[in-house]
Automatic annotation (TrEMBL):
Protein name per Swiss-Prot or TrEMBL: TIR domain-containing protein
Similarity comment text for this entry: Belongs to the Toll-like receptor family.
Top-level division of the source organism's lineage: Eukaryota
GO biological process entries: signal transduction
TM segment ranges: 782-806
Molecular function per GO: signaling receptor activity
Residue intervals of the TIR domain: 835-970
Keywords associated with the record: Glycoprotein, Leucine-rich repeat, Membrane, Receptor, Repeat, Signal, Transmembrane, Transmembrane helix
UniProt keyword Oxidoreductase, yes or no: no
Assigned GO CC terms: plasma membrane
Record bears the keyword Signal: yes
Protein topology in the membrane: Single-pass membrane protein
């Protein structure tokens, strides 16, 4: 303890709302004094007299700061009047005081209690009196003798903790006015018989968390003790004699027997975590018990009249005790019980007369038991009950009259039972606000004699999650105050707007984790518009949806319109949906990412007036444009179908007859066919006038057509936008005049214009005229040509021979010359002068290793490097992909296609090929370079790629002339001087690729 000797260096701060800090050799003192008293006594004027200290006074506030030198700290809280001392050394000397200071609370921490007593330190500091003293982690030699706490007559509250105490009968003689004594966590083992005798005013005693094994029964006799805490000790029995004790806590001990007969004023008792097996009948008959808490034990047998005749009893909590049975008279004549919990036991029921006198009960918790049935008369007396929890039991059915007397019930919990239905009259509880029925076996909510929510006109929350429900009850229109319903994890497969309307202006409906397949919003606009002003439904209906079973076809087209904001604004004021719906395609596709225009469904599902049947073909309906899709491809058809699907509400039909053996088409002139694909068949004639008048797309490629025979093409196919004709047997004589005129007329619509050539020739029909194919002097010119040839044959034989050799090998010669830097009169056209890149590489991301390790270094290196466009390097983040593709093709002189099995499976690869092919046809220039990578069966190629590869050359990866051919096919650029040629890495053992 501090004594008057020498002043050590310290730091002291006194403030109206701050702390006064001073470093000592022994302890830290925190002072808190009444503000008016301290300011009247502690000023810079009297503090500056302290040796080796200085004082600063804030002119704009009440702060006074004293600077000294030392090791300990002193702090003073003026608002709460607290002084605290925390010691850093066992040897501290203190001689200075602050005059006479009145404080209420003094705290010590980590200090050595000397036998001179705490009172001497209090006097040294100039403290007049204290009411509350707290000692934390103190150090003392031996037992707690009376000298340590002597002359503390003003102390009313004493708190000693984290200090190893050995009590004596004289320990508290110096604190006769104590009313509150806290002795937690002090390793106390024994309690002397007369240790508390001097404390004639003691009302609260806390001996918790010690090592006490026994308490003398008369320990508190003649002491006016109100509250006693003995929790977390080693007590095995308890028998106390106290005429004033109200509150007793003996939780977490080892008590096997308990006697409270002499605790006449006992109001509250906590017996949690003890090993009591039983107690005497009417254990608390001589008490005024208000509350009993007993949890986590093995109290399997409750004595007769256990809590009877207790007029003041309000709260009973007997939980987690393995109780199997309760006596019928357990709470008889205890008429004021408000809260009763028997949760987490093994009860399979309660005696019918158990609640005979419990009319004032407001909360009843019977959860986590084994109750199978509720007797119709069991709950009859509970007319004031507000909360009933029967969750986690074995109840199968809620009987008709089980709850009928609970006129004030507001909260009802039947979660985690085995309920399959609720009798129609069972929920006639008019004041109910919350109903919980989650985790049961309810499958049907249809209003009938077995189930009804008809009477719940005051209910606000219903939880029906984790059941087997698949539809919503129309009777829910009566639930006018419902604001929250949980239907998650049920069996909903279809949700209709008719169902949603039954949910009357609900704030939130949870339908997550249902196997939803279809959301039918076909009448949503009608329901939304039918609402009358002032539209009090706005933003009320909010639904949460999630499913991984969603059908991503036209059955959900209306819902797709809703998601893509394609409905009137009033719809979104009527209904708001938060969703995460995954297509049942096995790919994890989110429905919100599906293109609304691609949604189709089977023709049989589509309902329409005068709908024709579909035979032999695969027929679907697309609601986006109200079209019928008739796919008859790959069906070995010899005759084209004459009956084409249609309906009253169908705008047009798309007919696909490709990849069959059809030789002629029926007369489709008067049919509403907009797109017709007859490619890859055996057509040898085509009557243009018999084609549908509204046709926009026509595919005739890969047939045996020789000519267009019609002479009048004025009003034929006025809406045609897309036409393909390549790989036919087009003749190029005078009979081809109509064909040539037809091609010239529709040249801007023909996708494969550059590949429409004369039979067994590479002459493009587009380059021919009527005069060229019908020359009258053809024979004369031929004779003159032959004569001239014979005249010069002898003199030009050698030159002709050289020319023949060149003609047959001119490409290889040019490639060889180019690869050896021998100049050749080659130049790029002015059309390409402003293009940004030499080539755009189109490839599947799976083949990126070939591109990064071989193509890019091989082309961007060397003496004549090329500038490449790569999507992972040169595309703009966030831009629309189709725009990126078109821009890359337009800004590049060539498009290099890395054609592999992976590329064929890439949607974007096909888009890139078609974009480049279209640009090449429009400009009539060769812009596509195909690199054949790895084996690709011919059957895997679609029609366009088969057609292209059949009429164009390509480079095989692994060809020994690969790099020479590739560089030659690219725009020819002059060699760059003074640059080191980059090393081209070509893999060893490259196998050639063949189309099979």
């Amino acid at each position: 303890m501090p004594t008057k000797s020498s002043l050590k260096h310290c730091k002291c701060r006194i403030a109206n709302h701050s702390l006064l800090k001073m470093n000592w050799l022994m302890h830290i003192i925190i002072l808190q004094v009444l503000l008016g008293q301290v300011l009247s006594k502690l000023t810079c004027t009297n503090i500056t007299n302290i040796d080796k200290c200085s004082c600063k006074h804030d002119l704009y506030g009440d702060d006074i700061e004293v600077e000294c030198a030392g090791l300990s700290t002193l702090e003073l809280n003026l608002m709460e009047s607290i002084m605290k001392i925390e010691c850093n050394s066992d040897q501290t000397q203190w001689e200075q005081n602050f005059g006479q200071i009145d404080i209420n609370k003094l705290h010590y921490a980590k200090c050595l209690l000397s036998d001179t007593g705490i009172n001497q330190t209090v006097s040294t500091l100039g403290i007049n009196k204290i009411q509350s003293l707290k000692l934390v982690a103190m150090k003392l030699n031996g037992s707690l003798e009376n000298t340590y706490l002597s002359n503390l007559d003003s102390v009313e509250t004493l708190d000693i903790t984290l200090t190893k105490l050995i009590l004596t009968n004289e320990s508290f003689e110096g604190t006769p006015r104590l009313t509150k004594l806290y002795l937690r966590e002090n390793y106390i083992e024994d309690i002397p018989a007369d240790v508390f005798k001097p404390l004639t005013l003691l009302q609260i005693l806390d001996l918790g968390d010690n090592k006490i094994t026994k308490i003398n029964s008369d320990l508190f006799y003649s002491i006016p003790l109100k509250s006693l805490n003995l929790d977390t000790n080693y007590l095995t029995s308890l028998d106390l004699n106290s005429q004033s004790l109200n509150n007793l806590d003996v939780a977490n001990n080892r008590i096997t027997s308990l006697t409270v007969g002499r605790l006449n004023q006992l109001l509250n008792i906590s017996l949690n975590k003890n090993i009591l097996v039983t107690m005497p009948d009417q254990t608390f008959k001589n008490t005024f018990l208000v509350s009993i808490r007993f949890s986590y034990g093995n109290f399997t047998t409750i004595p007769q009249r256990f809590l009877t005749n207790l007029d003041r009893l309000l709260n009973v909590y007997l939980t987690s005790l393995n109780i199997e049975k309760v006596p019928e008279n357990m709470i008889w004549n205890s008429q004021n019980i408000i809260n009763l919990s028997l949760a987490s036991n093994r009860l399979n029921g309660l005696p019918v007369m158990f609640f005979r006198d419990a009319r004032k009960l407001k909360l009843l918790d019977l959860s986590k038991n084994q109750i199978e049935n509720i007797n119709d008369e069991l709950l009859r007396p509970l007319i004031n009950l507000e909360t009933l929890d029967l969750s986690n039991n074995l109840i199968i059915q809620i009987n008709k009259y089980s709850l009928r007397h609970l006129g004030n019930l507001k909260y009802l919990n039947f979660e985690r039972n085995k309920i399959t239905n609720i009798n129609r009259e069972a929920l006639n509880v008019p004041k109910l606000k919350t109903l919980k029925l989650a985790y049961n076996k309810i499958s049907n909510l249809t209003s009938n004699n077995l189930f009804s929510f008809y009477y719940l006109d005051q209910v606000e929350t219903i939880d029906l999650s984790n059941n087997f429900i698949n539809c919503i009850d129309p009777g829910w229109l009566n639930l006018i105050k419902l604001i929250n319903i949980n239907l998650s994890s049920n069996n909903f497969t279809v949700l209709r707007i008719q169902d949603i309307q039954y949910i009357n202006e609900i704030v939130k409906t949870n339908l997550n984790n249902n196997p939803l397949e279809v959301i039918d919003l076909s009448n949503l606009e009608i329901f939304a518009k039918a609402q009358s002003p002032p539209y009090n439904f706005w933003n009320n209906r909010q639904i949460n949806l999630s499913s991984d079973k969603f059908i991503c076809d036209c059955r959900n087209y209306e819902y797709a319109r809703f998601l893509h904001n394609q409905m009137p604004k009033i719809v979104y004021k009527y209904l708001q949906i938060e969703q995460k719906l995954i297509c049942n395609d096995g790919l994890g596709t989110e429905f919100s990412n599906v293109n609304i225009e691609s949604l189709t469904c089977d023709w049989n599902i589509f309902e329409d007036v005068d709908k024709t049947d579909c035979f032999e073909c695969e027929c679907t309906y697309r609601p986006h444009d109200k079209s019928a899709l008739m796919n008859c491809s790959n069906r070995n058809l010899i005759l084209a179908p004459k009956v084409i699907i249609s309906g009253r509400n169908i705008n047009y039909t798309e007919l696909n007859l490709s990849n069959n053996s059809i030789t002629e088409l029926p007369n489709y002139e008067n049919l509403n066919i907009k797109k017709l694909n007859i490619g890859y068949n055996n057509l040898n004639t085509i009557n243009i006038t018999q084609l549908p008048k509204n046709l926009t797309d026509l595919h005739l490629e890969h047939n045996y057509l020789t000519m267009i025979s019609e002479t009048n093409l004025t009003n034929i196919l006025p809406n045609l936008n897309n036409l393909t004709m390549n790989s036919n047997s087009w003749i190029c004589d005078c009979n081809a005049k109509n064909t040539i005129n037809f091609i010239h007329k529709y040249s801007s619509k023909i996708f494969d214009l550059a590949n429409i050539t004369c039979n067994q020739s590479s002459i493009q029909l587009l380059t021919l005229t009527e005069e060229e194919v019908c020359q009258e002097e053809l024979n004369t010119n031929m004779i003159i040509t032959v004569s001239m040839f014979l005249a010069v044959l002898s003199s030009a034989f050698s030159l002709g021979l050289l020319w023949m050799l060149y003609s047959n090998n001119k490409t290889k010669i040019k490639i060889w010359l180019y690869s050896h830097n021998i100049k050749w009169p080659i130049s790029e056209e002015s059309l390409d002068q402003d293009k940004k890149y030499d080539a755009f590489i189109s490839f599947s991301h799976i083949d990126i290793e070939l591109v990064e390790k071989h193509l890019v270094p091989g082309l961007e290196g060397g003496s004549s490097p090329f500038k490449l466009c790569l999507h992972y390097r040169d595309w703009e983040v966030g831009d629309w992909i189709p725009n990126q593709i078109a821009r890359s093709v337009d800004e590049s002189r060539r498009t290099i296609i890395v054609l592999s099995q992976n590329y064929l499976q890439s949607v974007w690869g096909r888009t890139e090929f078609r974009t480049a092919y279209s640009r090449a046809l429009n400009e009539r220039r060769s812009r596509i370079i195909v690199i054949l990578y790895k084996d690709i069966p011919e059957n895997d190629l679609d029609l366009e790629l088969q057609a292209y590869l059949s009429m164009n050359t390509y480079i095989r990866w692994g060809d020994r002339w690969f790099w020479q051919k590739l560089r030659y096919a690219l725009p020819h650029r002059p060699a760059m001087k003074n640059k080191t040629r980059a090393k081209i890495i070509v893999p060893d053992k490259l196998n050639s690729v063949r189309l099979t």
